[in-house]
Amino acid sequence: MRRQSRETSVALWGISSHEEMAFRDRYEVLRTIGCGGRAEVQVARHLLTGAEVAVKVLPKVKGKAALSEASVMRWLNHPNVIQLFQVIETREHVYLVMEHAVGGPALQHIPSRGMRPEEARRVFQQIAGAVGYCHGQGVVHLDLKLSNVVVDAAGTCKLIDFGLSLRVRPGQKLRRCWGTLAYLAPEILLKREYEGPPADVWSLGVILFYLLTGRCPFRALLRSGMVRRIREGRYHIPDRVPPQARSLIRSMLSMDPARRPTVEQVLQHPWLREGEEAVPCQDGEPPPKRPDPAIMAALVDLGHNPYEAWVSLTWGKFDDAAAAYLILRHQLSQGPGCAFNGKPVRPAHPSDGSVLPRRSTSELALRPCASSRDHRLPQEAQHTGHKDLRRVSLAGTDLHWLLQRTPAPAPAPQKPSHSRKDTSTGQPKAWKRVARRLASCFRQLCCCEPGGSKEETPGTREQRRGRGRVRVAPM
User: Where is there biased composition of kind Basic and acidic residues (predicted)?
Assistant: First the structure.
């Protein structure tokens, strides 16, 4: 039944089964959560780890790759911006594999009369912090609205949908008129040249108004009426909105773009400085200087070469190896209660990054991470019997407990006594080779700079199986 629904989804997009191999060998589509004129958003399971992800399917236009969104997202790394895991390009489509925020759109969490001021402040701080970070990276969103903000399991807001976003220079003028009418700045509707950051600030003003009142500031029965209200800047703020918040809204909804505050100035407004919560940092999360040994060990258990994964991350390649590392890191960052959302399944056609033999989940036990000194081993992990080990699988395991190799009990000896030396260890010879490979990979990580050599590294080889290719967004 699931296979039939997946093939139906493929048929709707006019994609051949051969063309879909590059995606279906890595992910299993679970359900569709959004569909628009240009894209479809699905929830899928990463077959290697069992984690649920969001996948945005973009059609190519006139044979060219629809990679503009990926080329923007690859530069962004912020706790309030949705994280990109992988980019898969086929002949007709581009798949953007991203973090799945299970809380859904922020819009559905807003009461009909708006949030309490302290709640609205917390949400708006996160949204404005994400936009300020994007502006600092030279990225303007140009489609800011509450339906493009989602909430994860921890209640954190995440900015999504960079399909209309652009990388701009300071002072660069734009002319295109795209976006959602209720959030569009008047200079865009007047078809004038405009700068991206002030247009985003106008949209932030509309968002804050909606958070506090439960409705848009420019309401009208007809589209023409809404356009007229926006062009004239006519709106009314209810008396229940705090005076300081009203002052902030008016400054962001200024008709003159030059008089609007920057996002940095917005975050310093007295109303946003009230309360105990600090204004979120706009600097984002710096990329790690060295790999996490715990995640690298888990990658070996999943069959990936850890050195190849680190090369991909260093060079900004969103391929299979990088996706496995990023997904594991994201799951670990969600806290001790985070577990894989499904049982790992071995892909039908593993990528070239899977150079080490994978072990079945029945061979996986747990050990504590070196940085988690206060944790105790789960009850199941304290047993060595084969039945207990079966219960400790990736399907229901706290990701703060890493995988360790615990050999299955050796079968009863059936060979002559001279073979006792071979069977007494209980450890397959293949895993001795795995240990040597792992040691070699970590020597490479310690002694080599991925970008410092002109020779080809494991991360540069593209020997993909099937007709689909795994490609990344151009610089």
Answer: 372-390, 452-465
